[in-house]
Write a structure and sequence with these properties.
Chain B: The chain crosses the membrane at residues 12-30, 100-121, 133-154, 174-198, 243-270, 290-314. The structure holds 2 protein chains of 2 kinds. By secondary structure, chain A is α+β, with helices and mostly antiparallel strands. Chain A has helices spanning 3-16, 43-49, 101-112, 159-164, 231-239, 254-259, 298-307, 310-317, 338-341, 347-356, 377-389, 402-410, 428-436, 454-465, 469-486, and strands at residues 23-28, 57-59, 65-67, 70-75, 82-87, 125-132, 135-140, 191-197, 201-206, 222-227, 245-246, 263-278, 322-324, 363-370, 393-400, 416-421, 489-502, 505-506, 521-522. Classes of the chains: A alpha+beta, B mainly alpha.
Chain lengths: 523, 327
C-alpha cells in the first residue's frame, strides 16, 4: 500500500466510521465452481456461497449450531420422524422478495432432486411441507435425531426468482446448457453479488436489509474474492498488501508471516483427520497370488500402528502444524475422547507382534498416496516408508494426483492408502456410515478396506435412528471400542488450519475452513 | 500454387486428427473426473449415473468420435468444472493470453535484436561480455523461479508492481484488454518479462552470431573500403541480412510463447488459457483439455502453414519443382 492510499484510507475511515467503507480482499487457492447452491458439495464453492445465501440452521465459527433462517425447531414428541421448523419473519431476499415457507419447500425439493449434489447430505428427508407462511414440517425416513446437523449447507433461494429465471432445475453438466443460477444469486445472506468472473474475481457488497445487520459484527462493507493458485504468489500478495486475508497458507511460510508485525496467523484444529486404510481381505491386490495377506492379521495391523511415529511426522514433516491422532475422528465430533485419541510408538513391541503373527521376516507392500490433496501428503507417506522399514515392512510408495488416487481407493484397487475425512455432521455416525460399514451402494461408500463387521453395520443403522441420546452415546462408545480393536485404519493426525491476515482483520478460524465474513470485525 | 496449398491443408487436417486421437487416448490416464464432480456423500449409483451421462463408460475412440462430431458443429461441450460452455470460457480467457504473448514477444524481439547488435559490434567490450554472461542466466533459470524472484523484488520489497492478476481490464464486448488502464499495464510488466526473457536471450544470441558472420563477409569489407559510415554498414547492410533467420525463429517461437505461457500464468495468477488448462488437468475436465489441445494444435499448424507459404512466395526454387514440397 502506498502512503497516499494509506492516508486516504485512514481519512475515509475517520470520516465515515470504521465499519462503513472497509473492503476485505480475500484470497485462497481455488475458486467456487458455481453459484448454484445445490450443484456442488465442495468446500470453496460453499464458502463463497455462504456469504450470499443462508441455510435454516447454521454452524458458527465455534462449530456450534446456530439459528439462521429458522428460529426454532423441535421434533414431534409422539412421532420422532416429524420435525417442525419455525422460520424467521421479516427476512427479505436481495431482490426484495419476502422469505416464506414456500421458498423452504422449493429449496429442499431442489436440493433433493436428481442432479443435486447435496441430496446425499439430506438423504434422510422424506418430505417437506409448509404448515403456514412461517412454519415448515420435515418428515424423515425413520427417526433422525441429527437432522438439524445435516442442514447447515442446504442453502435457501427464492422460488419465484428461480421460476421467473427458468432455473428451477439444478444444472446437469451433460445437459448442454448453463443455468441462470450458476451465475446469479438471490439469497438472504449478508452480502449481495456485485460481479463475478469465474476463476478471476468475485465482488460482493453488504446487503442493507439484512435481517441480522444488528446481530453480527459485519465489519466489512465489501468483499473482493480472488483465487490465487500458486502458494508463493498467494503469500507474496499478502506481504505486499494486495490482499488482506488468505486461506490455504503454505506451512513453510507461517514463520515468515508470524514475524511480520503487520500480519498475523490464526489457527485451529481442522475438521479433517488424515489416516491410512488397510486391505483386510484374504488376498492383496498387488501381492503374489496365494501368498496370503499379512494385513488380514490384526496383530500385523496393530504392529504397523505402533510403528508410526506421529510426533516425528508432526515435528519434521508438518513443522508443528498437526495434532497426532489415535482415532480417525476430529476432536470436536460427538464420540471423541482423550482416551480414544491416545496412541504411542513402540518399535520393540511392534517387532514382537510381527514375530508372534508369523511375519517376523517382514513383507513388502505398495502404499498409494495422493500428492495434491492434503497438506504435505506425499511427504507424510515418504516418512512412513522409513518408519515401517524399522519393523521389516518394505513399502513401495506410489504417489500420484488425487484424480488418479481416489479411483484406486474406491475401486478397491489399493491395499494400503492414504485418506482424509471431515465430518460435516460433527457426529460419529457419519464416520461409521461411510468408512466402517460394509461397502455397498448406500453405506460404506468410502470404505476401501474390505472390512465387514455385521454387528457394527447393524449398530451403525441403529444409532442413525436412536432418539434417546444417552443410550445413543453409549452405543457409539461401544462401537469405537470394537472399531479400535480391529485397527483397519491407521490414524495419522488432525490437520491444523491456518488463516493469515492483516493484523487489523478480526476473524476466528472455522474448523470446516468455511469463511463467514459476517462474523469478521475490522479495526 | 493452389495444389500446393490444398496438399498442405490436407496434411494439416491429418495432423490435427492425430493430435486429437493421441490426446483422447491419454485422458483416461489423467484420472477420473467423476470423483471431483460429486461430493463425499455420493452413492455408487450417483457415480455410475454420472459416468454414463458423460459417456465415460465408453471406449476413448467413441468419446473422441463424439467430440469430433460436436466440434465440427462448433460445440465443444460444457466444462465439467465450471458447468459453462467451453467455447465461452476459451474466448473469455484467450485475450489475456494473447495480450501477454504479444507484449512479451515484442519485448523479446526488440530487446533481443538491440542487444544482439550491440554485443556483435562491441564484441570485445566489457558491456557485451556482461550481457552475454547474464544471458546465460536467462536461458538456464526456470521460468517459475524468475517469476517468483521478480514478485519478491518488485511486488513485496519495492511495492511497485502487482504480484498477481491482470489489473483492471476494459471490456470491448468481444475482447477484454488491459492496455487501456494504468493497473492493467502495470500488471503486464512482470509476467511479460518472465515469459519473454528466455525468448529474448535466444533471439539475442541468434542475432549476435548471424551478425558476426555477416560482418566477416566480403561485401561488408568492400562497404568499409568504399568509406561508408560505420552506422550505415552495421544497420543498413549487415542487419538486413541478419534478419531472415531471426524472422523465421520468431514466428515459430510465437507459437510456443502462447502454448507455454502455462507456467508464467500459474505463477502470476494470469487469467489466460494456460491457467485454465492447468486447472482442467487437475480436475480432469476433459472438454476443456480437449478444446485447449485442439486450439493449440490448430495454432501451431496454422503458423507452420503460413511459414511454408511464405517460403513458397520467397523461394522461387519451390515454384519450379513443386514436387519436392517438403524441405
Amino acid at each position: 500500500m502506498t502512503k497516499q492510499t494509506l492516508l486516504a484510507a485512514t481519512a475515509m475511515s475517520l470520516l465515515m466510521g470504521a465499519a462503513q467503507a472497509e473492503t476485505l480482499r480475500w484470497a485462497r487457492a481455488g475458486d467456487a465452481l458455481t453459484l448454484d447452491p445445490h450443484a456442488q458439495n465442495e468446500g470453496p464453492t460453499l464458502a463463497l456461497m455462504h456469504q450470499m445465501m443462508e441455510p435454516l440452521v447454521l454452524r458458527n465459527p465455534d462449530g456450534e449450531l446456530e439459528a439462521a433462517l429458522a428460529t426454532d425447531w423441535s421434533v414431534d414428541p409422539d412421532n420422532p420422524e416429524v420435525w417442525t421448523f419455525s422460520l424467521r419473519e421479516g427476512v427479505t431476499f436481495h431482490d426484495g422478495a419476502e422469505f416464506t415457507a414456500e421458498d423452504v419447500v422449493f429449496s429442499f425439493e431442489r436440493a433433493l432432486s436428481e442432479n443435486s449434489d447435496m441430496k446425499g447430505l439430506i438423504s434422510s428427508v422424506a418430505s417437506v411441507e409448509a404448515l403456514s407462511d412461517y412454519e415448515v414440517e420435515i418428515t424423515t425416513n425413520g427417526p433422525n435425531p441429527l437432522l438439524p446437523a445435516a442442514l447447515p449447507n442446504i442453502l435457501m433461494i427464492d422460488k419465484d426468482w428461480a421460476e421467473a429465471n427458468d432455473t428451477v432445475d439444478v444444472q446437469d453438466v451433460e445437459g448442454g446448457e448453463e443455468t441462470f443460477a450458476s451465475q446469479n444469486v438471490n439469497g438472504t445472506g449478508p452480502y449481495m453479488l456485485v460481479s463475478r468472473e469465474p476463476d478471476v474475481r468475485t465482488e460482493m457488497t453488504a446487503f442493507e436489509d439484512y435481517w441480522g445487520a444488528a446481530d453480527f459484527p459485519i465489519g466489512y462493507s465489501d468483499i473482493v474474492y480472488t483465487p490465487i493458485q500458486n502458494p508463493s504468489t498467494r503469500t507474496a500478495a499478502l506481504f505486499s498488501g494486495e490482499v488482506d486475508f488468505i486461506q490455504d497458507v503454505p506451512v513453510q511460510d507461517l514463520e515468515r508471516i508470524e514475524a511480520d508485525p503487520s500480519l498475523k496467523i490464526v489457527s485451529s484444529p481442522q475438521n479433517r483427520v488424515i489416516f491410512y486404510g488397510l486391505n483386510v481381505s484374504d488376498e492383496l491386490v498387488n501381492g503374489t497370488p496365494d501368498a496370503g495377506n499379512p494385513l488380514a492379521d490384526g496383530q500385523v495391523r496393530e504392529a504397523m500402528n505402533m510403528a508410526l511415529n506421529r510426533d516425528a511426522i508432526r515435528d519434521v514433516v508438518m513443522r508443528g502444524q498437526s495434532i497426532p491422532a489415535g482415532v480417525i475422528m476430529p476432536p470436536f465430533v460427538n464420540g471423541w475422547n482423550e482416551e480414544l485419541n491416545s496412541v504411542s510408538t513402540d518399535i520393540e513391541a511392534a517387532k514382537a507382534l510381527m514375530e508372534e503373527a508369523g511375519w517376523g521376516d517382514g513383507f513388502s507392500i505398495q502404499l498409494d498416496c495422493p500428492n495434491d490433496r492434503y497438506i504435505n501428503d506425499e511427504a507424510i507417506c515418504q516418512a512412513t516408508v522409513g518408519m515401517l522399514a524399522q519393523i521389516g515392512v518394505t513399502v513401495n510408495l506410489n504417489a500420484q494426483p488425487k484424480a488418479q488416487h481416489f479411483p484406486l481407493v474406491n475401486g478397491l484397487e489399493s491395499d494400503f492408502y492414504m485418506l482424509g475425512w471431515g465430518v460435516p455432521s460433527y457426529d460419529s455416525e457419519y464416520i461409521f456410515n461411510f468408512l466402517y460399514h460394509t461397502k455397498g451402494d448406500l453405506y460404506g461408500t468410502w470404505n476401501g478396506t474390505r472390512y465387514s463387521n455385521p454387528e457394527l453395520d447393524e449398530m451403525t443403522k441403529a444409532i442413525a435412528a436412536e432418539v434417546d441420546l444417552e443410550a445413543r452415546d453409549e452405543m457409539i462408545a461401544e462401537m469405537w471400542d470394537m472399531a479400535k480393536a480391529d485397527t483397519v485404519y491407521l490414524p495419522i493426525h488432525h490437520q491444523v488450519l491456518n488463516w493469515a491476515m492483516d493484523s487489523d482483520v478480526g476473524a476466528a478460524v472455522d474448523p470446516d475452513d468455511q469463511v463467514k465474513v459476517k462474523y469478521f470485525t475490522a479495526d | 500454387m493452389l495444389a500446393y496449398i490444398i496438399r498442405r491443408v490436407a496434411q494439416s487436417v491429418l495432423v490435427l486428427l492425430i493430435t486429437g486421437f493421441v490426446a483422447f487416448s491419454m485422458f483416461s490416464y489423467v484420472g477420473d473426473p467423476v470423483e471431483n464432480m460429486l461430493g463425499q456423500e455420493r452413492t455408487q449409483a450417483d457415480v455410475d449415473r454420472l459416468r454414463e451421462q458423460l459417456g465415460l463408460d465408453q471406449p476413448f475412440v467413441v468419446q473422441y468420435a463424439k467430440f469430433l462430431g460436436q466440434a465440427v458443429q462448433g460445440n465443444f461441450g460444457l466444462s465439467y468444472r465450471q458447468g459453462r460452455p467451453v467455447s465461452d470460457i476459451l474466448s473469455e480467457r484467450l485475450p489475456a493470453t494473447l495480450e501477454l504473448a504479444a507484449v512479451s514477444g515484442l519485448m523479446a524481439l526488440a530487446g533481443g535484436i538491440g542487444l544482439g547488435i550491440f554485443t556483435a559490434i562491441r564484441r570485445r567490450g566489457v558491456g557485451a561480455n556482461v550481457i552475454m554472461t547474464l544471458s546465460l542466466v536467462g536461458v538456464s533459470l526456470p521460468t517459475f523461479l524468475i517469476g517468483i524472484l521478480l514478485i519478491y523484488v518488485f511486488a513485496v520489497q519495492l511495492g511497485w508492481l502487482p504480484s498477481f492478476g491482470r489489473g483492471e481490464v476494459t471490456d470491448l464486448g468481444w475482447w477484454t484488454t488491459g492496455f487501456l488502464t494504468v493497473s492493467g499495464l502495470k500488471a503486464l510488466v512482470l509476467p511479460a518479462i518472465t515469459l519473454g526473457l528466455y525468448q529474448m536471450t535466444l533471439i539475442m544470441r541468434l542475432v549476435r552470431t548471424e551478425m558476426l558472420e555477416v560482418l566477416r563477409m566480403d561485401y561488408i569489407r568492400f562497404a568499409r573500403a568504399r568509406g561508408l559510415r560505420e552506422r550505415a554498414i552495421n544497420f543498413r547492410h549487415a542487419l538486413k541480412n541478419t534478419l531472415v533467420p531471426v524472422i523465421t525463429i520468431t514466428g515459430l517461437q510465437l507459437g510456443s510463447i502462447i502454448a507455454f505461457a502455462i507456467i508464467t500464468e500459474t505463477v502470476f495468477q494470469w487469467p489466460g488459457v494456460g491457467l485454465l488448462f492447468i486447472n482442467a488437468i487437475q480436475f480432469v475436465d476433459i472438454p476443456v483439455m480437449a478444446a485447449y489441445l485442439m486450439m493449440i494444435s490448430v495454432m501451431f499448424v496454422a503458423i507452420n502453414l503460413v511459414v511454408d507459404l511464405l517460403y513458397f512466395a520467397i523461394d522461387p526454387r519451390l515454384r519450379v519443382d513443386g514436387r519436392s514440397g517438403g524441405h
